[in-house]
Structure formats: C-alpha cells, structure tokens
C-alpha cells in the first residue's frame, strides 16, 4: 500500500514524518500531499527548468500507448528474469523514473497474483507523470523527485528498477541494501527499427551501454526480449512517436512521411540487465 514513509527531506536529508496530509522534517521543511496522494520532493533549486521531465502532452501520449498493453511482454520478461531468491515477501522496490506508472502498476498486479507482498515506490522528475501515476494506482507511493538526488535514506530498497530512464549509479547504490538488485531495461539495436527507417535517411550503428561494467555493481544476468505489435491508426502511431525521443530528433520530412501510414507493424527489441550491488567495491569508492 501507499505509505510515503521512510522518505528524506530533499533539502537537508533529514527523515520525513507523515502528519495526515503532509510530510515534515525536524528542521521545519514541510511537503503537502496532493489530492491524488503523491508528494513533490523536488525543490525549486534542484530543477534545471521550470517544468522538468516529460510534458503533459507526452504523458498523455504514453498513457494512450501503454494502456493498449503492447509492452506487457516487458512486464513478463522482468518477472521471468528476476533472480528467484530475491523475489520474496516484504521486498521494497523503487522504480526510478517511473513515468506515468504503467510498469509499476502492472508489476503490483503480478506480485499480488504470486501472493508476494511488496512495498512499491515510484519516482519521476515530471510532475505530470506522477499526477497521472497517482490516479492510476493508489497502492503505490508516488514521488516527484530526481534520480540525481533521491529523497530516501541509505539502504532503503531491495531493488531499484530503471526502465528506459536515466540511471544515476552512485545514488542507486546508496539507497540499495547490501546485495540489493538493480535492473536496467533499455532499447536493443532493432527496437522500433521499422519506425526509425521511415523517420531517418540512415540508421546509426548500435552502441552497447556500460559495456565495461558499472562501478559498484556485478552483472547477474542479461537477456533480450523481442516481439512485434501492430498500430492500426495514425492516431496510435502518433501517440507512440510522441512518447519517444524521435519526436524531437526526427526531421520534418521524416515526421511527414510517417503521417502517410494508417497501420504499421513494429519490432520491440529490449535488453534487460540485472546487477547486484557489490558492497566490497562500493566501500573502496
């Protein structure tokens, strides 16, 4: 269930205590809960822009697309690859860069079906994303915040998930318990290749991220998940485009070319990598 407990003040890192509809630290900083139940722990001085993260329009487009369940195979792949000894009752999970909450909401359902109780927290820098997430699922603690400075105490979570987001490894390591898990879900070389061939005159070579490893973490497993799906209207195609970086990267000609399609079948090519926190390595950093 949503608790919004065991969080930290983003200004002084002091523990936050809940008092009905607000969170307060010992130094007097107070953060009111929104009507839908989320809390904003992103102080103005930590914002790089007036309205950071995904815009309201991008969030709506992502909701429209994800609610069609085209990406549900990713949820199944996460649970299929989750190290079994870590999938236990009472686990505490942080989705760092949770967007509008689709994945965490679906994972909550899957955990319940397996009779696994878990404390779920979703954090995103976009206020619009968290507003949408807090309307989707009341069982999750939703927080507006930044991966660069997570408003949570040390060793708070058993698993940190970063799905198509921006990982900050020193912060992930800090908030993970000893031997805690980190999951990175990223695009593979052929992800949405059909869309990209329409948008761009040439496709850049794929570059593997973190190929030299990640300091403070040991790779546990990695796998690829590939599947296809069909979008049967221009509206659905534009929703997908609007939720990807291609909406900003593609040229005008590429975007206009895409408008000529009323249906398109696309390849989803996903990489999942599980890491375990390396306590010995972290202690020497």
Poorly predicted segments: none
* Number of continuous helical runs: 10
Shape: globular
Terminal Cα span:
35 Å
CATH superfamily: Vaccinia Virus protein VP39
Gross CATH architecture: 3-Layer(aba) Sandwich
**How much is the radius of gyration in Å?**
19 Å
Please give the order of strands in the largest beta sheet.
Answer: 4-7-6-5-8-9-11-10
Structural classification = alpha/beta
- Beta percentage is 25-35%
CATH topology: Rossmann fold
| CATH class value | Alpha Beta
- Helix % is 25-40%
Topology:
Elements: E1 17-19, E2 22-24, E3 30-32, E4 39-40, H1 56-66, H2 72-81, E5 91-96, H3 102-113, E6 118-124, H4 127-136, E7 141-144, E8 157-163, H5 169-175, E9 176-187, H6 193-199, E10 217-231, H7 234-242, H8 246-249, H9 252-258, E11 264-277, H10 279-283
Parallel strand pairs: 4-7, 5-6, 5-8, 6-7, 8-9
Antiparallel strand pairs: 1-2, 2-3, 9-11, 10-11
Helix pairs in contact: 1-7
